[in-house]
Design brief:
Blueprint lengths: L1 E2 L6 E2 L38 H8 L6 E7 L6 E4 L3 E5 L6 E2 L10 E6 L2 E6 L6 E3 L2 E2 L4 E2 L5 E4 L2 E7 L3
Parallel strand pairs: 5-6
Antiparallel strand pairs: 1-2, 3-4, 3-13, 5-7, 7-8, 8-11, 9-10, 9-12, 12-13
Length: 160
């Protein structure tokens, strides 16, 4: 019987994902299927309410905020204040996005030398920045729109 290389769980022969840990078992051929398409809609900073604007203004240097605009958790805020933050459907994710359009381990946000970047973690539906499907790490700037599954978020770094 086949076992998961990530956790050792016994698998069915034709499994594409481990039912225990969600590890992707599919052999990559370079062809991918994307179920979710990007939301193309400009974000207007004037749409922020006073509470969100105050939270963004109060961010410490070296931290950032992801503000959820669309999805099942609209209005949620996620503080990114470590060197690495994970985004996904796994309950231990720093940015927990509870929807089947989000992979368990969907994306990773890293901070290096004060600059934040995001990379997709081989998710099924991909990660989009400003409507573009990303391939590899992409630097994040103030006001960038990040789409993970059906969740649309805006990135705000702390200002000096």
């Amino acid at each position: 019987m086949k076992t998961c290389p990530a956790c050792g769980h016994e698998l069915l022969e034709d499994a594409n994902f481990c039912p225990q840990c969600g590890h992707n078992l599919a052999k990559h051929t370079g062809d991918t299927t994307r179920v979710i398409s990007p939301v193309i809609e400009e974000f207007d900073p004037e749409e922020l309410d006073a509470e969100d604007a105050a939270a963004i203004e109060a961010l410490p240097v070296g931290s950032a905020l992801l503000l959820v605009l669309r999805g099942g958790q609209s209005g949620a805020r996620y503080l990114i204040d470590g060197e690495v933050a994970t985004a996904g459907r796994h309950p231990d994710s720093d940015v927990f996005l509870d929807d089947v359009t989000v992979s368990r381990h969907h994306a990773r946000i890293t901070r290096e030398n004060g600059q934040f970047s995001i990379a997709d973690e081989n998710s099924l539906n991909g990660t989009y920045v400003n409507g573009d499907l990303i391939d590899g790490a992409v630097a994040l700037r103030r006001g960038d729109e990040v789409q993970v599954g059906k969740f649309r978020m805006v990135f705000f770094p702390g200002q000096e």
